[in-house]
UniProtKB/TrEMBL annotation:
One of its GO terms (cellular component) is endospore-forming forespore. It is found in: Spore core. The keyword Transcription does not apply. The keyword Amino-acid biosynthesis does not apply. This is Small, acid-soluble spore protein, H family. Keywords: Sporulation. Coiled coil: none annotated. Signal peptide: none annotated. It comes from Domibacillus antri. GO terms for biological process: asexual sporulation; sporulation resulting in formation of a cellular spore. Belongs to the SspH family. It comes from the Bacteria.
Length: 62
């Protein structure tokens, strides 16, 4: 995923865009200003957050 697209997804609160990291659906919480990383957490009841490379995120289109 590109940094610009990740920022668009985060800035649209009602966005129902599915994003995956290593094949698992995640929410993007924050896109970092370094242009390379973002903080994400798993979709679902877990709130554990982790920092990942934006290039490793994939937008799922149906």
């Amino acid at each position: 995923m590109e940094w610009k697209r990740a920022k668009q997804i985060v800035s649209t609160p009602s966005s129902d865009v599915e994003v995956q990291f290593n094949g698992v659906s995640v929410w993007i919480d924050k896109v970092h200003n370094d242009g390379k990383t973002a903080t994400v957490h798993l979709r679902g009841p877990w709130e554990e957050r982790t920092e990942v490379g934006i290039a490793d995120l994939q937008e799922v289109t149906h």
